[in-house]
Structures are given as C-alpha cells and as structure tokens.
Design the sequence.
C-alpha cells in the first residue's frame, strides 16, 4: 500500500465528506488507496452520518470510519488512526494527515509522495496552506524567546531586527524547515513505528510542533514542498478563527506544555515574559498612535494570570474528556 490518509472529525461531518472525496480523487493512482476517518466522540450524529455515507458502494470500501469513543484532542485522534493502520496485514509506506476542513489541491499529494520517496532521510513533509482570503501559511521555525517577543510586539523595526527568529517563514522553494502545519502532513510510516506518535498531553495546538521536534530528534528531516498546496477553511470545529472570542484555555495549556517539556520551566517562564513584554510594546505603540490594539478579548489579563499561576510548574497535561469546550473556561472569562 503506497499511502493511507487520516482525517480526524469533530462535528464537521459534511466538510469531512468533501475532504475525503478530494483525497480519493488524488489517491486514485496509488496502490490500494485508503482513508481512515476518526470521529472524535462528536455526539452530534457525525459518526452515524459518516458511517452511513461511506458504506455506499460508490466509495468502493476505501473509507473506514472509527469511533474514538473519547475526545482526547487532535493528536489523540491521529494516533487512533495510526494504530489502526499499523495493525493492518499490509501497512502503508506513508501516512497522510489532513484536516476535515481542508481540501488537497490536484497533484499535491503526489508531489509530496514523490519528494519523500526520493529523499529517504526525510520523515515528515508539508506544503503550502491557503485560506479563502488568500492568506498563505508555509513553514515554521521552532518557538523561541525572541520569537515570542517579536510575535506580540508587532512593530516593523523589531521585526526587521528579529527576522531570523520569526516563527512563520515564507520560503519560495522546497527546503528543510523546523516544522510544518498540522493541517496537511505526510509522514513516513517508519517514523510512526519507532514509535514517534503524537503526544496526547496536548489537547489542541502545538501538537504538530512537538511532533516535528521529536521526528527531528529521532534523526529524520522535516521538509516544506513548495508545489504542494491545500485549501483550508480553518477552525470549523473550534471557532479559533473568530478573534472576537477569548482564546480558549487549551491554547495556554498547550503553549506552556511545549516550552516546559522541551526547554524546562525556567525557559518557559522567560518566554512568557518575552510574550508579555512584546505585547506591552504593541499596546504602548497603539496608545500613542491613538489606535485600538488588535487582540482577543481579555488576552493580556488571561495570559499574565495563567503564567503567574503556573510559574515554574511541570508541563501540564491535556484535560481528559475536555471535548471542544473551553478548557479552564474560568481563566478566559475573567
């Protein structure tokens, strides 16, 4: 089997069907194309709808729907699909993970497959992600102290000075990178057998950064492929694109888990301070220019409160049975 795809669904049944249809069109030329849809305990009829839809003969038995029976987060759902695939009599050479609100562009998966097949030292590949407004996401550096400061300062002179530390990068050609978007990832199955699975201590966000870091630590390279693209609606299940809403608690939790897990609590606290100082620069600039700071409601207060309460603590675990609710909602409502 050349490649199998995993789509994790949470209350996005119809977009999931569209994503799978686009995937199978893209996978037609591969040997034994297979898609695994993991329903992450949606409890809204998604599992039943998906099971009925993909049982139709027109799908030719190429889609398997699995009920995870527990919403442990995005990485948890991916792991459910990976374990299913690794238990098959014939496992795929590569595993492709794509969001249910994303549609792979024609030829993109084939190009990523071709690149990985010709580079045996590459374990993880991603491509260009663009949304309906035309905004593009390509590849990233790992988060860092100076990167946190630059990201919240939002000041041109600081960005110019700290360009080498900016997390988001926009390469114009295929190149090695630190990590790629979890929206669309091609993973060599050998990586998953090590095993380097997703850390289920992340409920949502930062799990793909952690995964890429551990893939690199295991001796594999991570690459961005320029001519592979995916159209992404964005955050249908989470509402994360709606910046009029407070940042959900699981974002703060995941961010802190990443820094403390990989760099220790002291560095994690330093990165919090860098974020706060950058935000203060942005707020001061906006006040002097008579502009309203463009930020989520209560972001400043919530971030500082979370940082102080968790100062120098061990890396937090994802709340179990959290669903897609606002984890630690009291923190974001203050």
Sequence:
């Amino acid at each position: 089997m050349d490649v199998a795809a995993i789509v994790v669904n949470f209350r996005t049944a119809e977009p999931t069907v569209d994503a799978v249809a686009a995937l199978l069109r893209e996978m037609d030329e591969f040997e034994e194309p297979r898609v695994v849809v993991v329903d992450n305990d949606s409890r809204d009829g998604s599992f039943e709808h998906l099971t009925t839809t993909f049982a139709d003969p027109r799908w030719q038995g190429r889609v398997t729907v699995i009920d995870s029976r527990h919403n442990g987060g995005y990485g948890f759902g991916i792991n459910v699909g990976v374990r299913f695939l690794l238990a098959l009599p014939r496992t795929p050479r590569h595993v492709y993970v794509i969001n249910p609100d994303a549609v792979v562009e024609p030829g993109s998966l084939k190009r990523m497959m071709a690149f990985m097949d010709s580079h045996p030292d590459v374990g993880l590949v991603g491509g260009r992600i663009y949304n309906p407004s035309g905004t593009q996401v390509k590849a990233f550096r790992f988060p860092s102290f100076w990167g946190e400061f630059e990201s919240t300062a939002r000041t041109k002179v600081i960005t110019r000075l700290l360009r080498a530390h900016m997390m988001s990068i926009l390469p114009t050609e295929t190149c090695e990178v630190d990590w790629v978007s979890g929206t669309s990832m091609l993973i060599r199955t050998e990586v998953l057998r090590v095993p380097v699975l997703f850390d289920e201590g992340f409920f949502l966000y930062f799990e793909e950064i952690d995964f890429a870091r551990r893939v690199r630590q295991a001796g594999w390279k991570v690459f961005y492929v320029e001519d592979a693209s995916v159209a992404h609606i964005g955050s249908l299940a989470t509402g994360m694109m709606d910046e009029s809403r407070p940042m959900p608690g699981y974002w703060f939790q995941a961010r802190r888990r990443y820094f403390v897990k990989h760099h220790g609590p002291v560095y994690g606290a330093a990165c919090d301070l860098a974020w706060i100082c950058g935000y203060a620069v942005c707020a001061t600039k906006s006040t002097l220019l008579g502009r309203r700071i463009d930020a989520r409601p209560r972001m400043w207060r919530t971030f500082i409160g979370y940082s102080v309460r968790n100062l120098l603590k061990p890396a937090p675990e994802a709340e179990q049975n959290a669903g897609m609710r606002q984890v630690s909602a009291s923190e974001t409502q203050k």
About this structure: The domain at 3-141+177-232 is CATH 3.90.550.10 (Spore Coat Polysaccharide Biosynthesis Protein SpsA; Chain A). The CA atoms of residues 46 and 326 lie 21 Å apart. The radius of gyration is 20 Å. The longest strand covers residues 221-232.
